[in-house]
Amino acid sequence: MGSLHVLDHPLLQHKLTILRDKNTGVKEFREIVGEISALMCYEATRNLPTMEVEVETPISMAKVKVLAGKKMAIVPILRAGLGMVDAMIQLVPSAKVGHIGLFRDPETHEPVQYYCKMPPDISERQVFVVDPMLATGGSASAAIKILKEEYGCKHITLMDILAAPEGVEVIRKDHPDVDIYVTAVDEKLNDHAYIVPGLGDAGDRIFGTK
Ligand code: PRP
Ligand code: URA
After folding, report:
1. What is the pLDDT along the chain (210 residues), one digit of tens a residue?
2. How far is the CA of 14 from the centre of ligand 1 (A)?
3. Neighbours of 46 (CB within 10 A)
4. What contacts 155, CB < 8 A, 6 or more positions away?
5. What is the distance in A from the centroid of ligand 2 to the CA of 79?
6. Whose CA is nearest to atom 1 of ligand 2?
7. Nearest CA to ligand 1 atom 22
């Protein structure tokens, strides 16, 4: 059974406030998304399996730990999820990266798929689906469904910087096995399915398209 983890560390809360500020420009926004992603990744990978190995230090032999098995895959939901990938790869260079292209139909707010490319061994990896925003939950739920049904993924974690209660509810219902990591759950969605108070359109703010 997955759980909702709201990461209320002061560093994360401080950085989230900078993202929320409408006066934060593209360069700083992108940098802070990276910093938050690294801090979230540190917490979300806490339960990755390890195994014992021997290493010779300058002083003696030591029994120590390394990550076990096939390890991680990071799957950003395009576009905005791309802003989270580089910082995570810096921490886990052995991670492979798959991409899912989804956009929300502006009228229905339903996700529309336009791209998908996964590493061939993704079913054996712990998959981290990443996207700054969990609003209605439609995009994340669709991405996780594709990973489970088309790629056989069994161990999936969802990492979103910011969520609406509605989105959390959808993931809990559609994918109760998935752990969800966020830095905050905001008040609600508005009539355009944007998170309130939120931080606006994450993709536009990362890539400067508005
Ligand atoms: C945003 C965001 C999520 C999605 C969240 O992407 O990055 O993928 O909306 O909304 P949901 O939970 O209601 O599905 P958007 O569709 O704006 O595409 P973009 O990343 O290309 O800007
Ligand atoms: N997508 C965003 O980028 N922001 C929201 O508030 C909702 C969906």
Report:
1. 899 999 999 999 999 999 999 999 999 999 999 999 999 999 999 999 999 999 999 999 999 999 987 789 999 999 999 999 999 999 999 999 999 999 889 889 899 999 999 999 999 999 999 999 999 999 999 999 999 999 999 999 999 999 999 999 999 999 999 999 999 999 999 999 999 999 999 999 999 998
2. 23
3. 7
4. 125, 126, 127
5. 12
6. 201
7. 203
Q: Which amino acid is at 168?
A: V
Say which of 30, 79, 104, 172 is annotated catalytic: 104
Residue from 75, 99, 103 whose mutation best tests the ligand 1 pocket (most atoms within 8 A of CB): 103
What is the Cα–Cα distance from 85 to 90, expressed in whole angstroms? 9
Amino acid at 4: L
Give, using CA atoms, the residue closest to atom 7 of ligand 2.
194
CA dist list (Å): 25 to 178, 195, 203, 206: 33, 19, 13, 9
Q: Which residue matches tokens 């029994």? A: 63
Distance 60 CA to ligand 1 centre (A): 52
Residue 13 in tokens: 């809360």
* Contact residues for 102 (Cβ-Cβ < 8 A; gap 6+): 77, 78, 111, 112, 113, 114, 139, 142, 143
Peptide bond into 125 cis (omega under 30): no
